[in-house]
Description:
The chain is mostly helical. Helices cover 81% and strands 0% of the residues.
Amino acid sequence: MNEAVQQTGIRWYLRIMAKTQINIRMDDETAEMARQAAETRRIPVNEYVEQLIRDDNEHVRAVFMAAAQEVLDEYGDLIDELEGESSS
């Protein structure tokens, strides 16, 4: 088998088959909204839901990282002092 074909097959398997299946329950109106949104984007509903979850988590992570940077900017010197004291 051609190596490029084999690599393509492996990528396809990992993208399509190597996923955890979960079931979610939602009211009919929300389910229809999900179907319509996915159809508009020309993607399967599961991919649409996956994108929503990823986008939400990326947003939460960005907010957390910005807040953590603010703490380091504000209290970094104090943290360094405390770490220095605890290692002595």
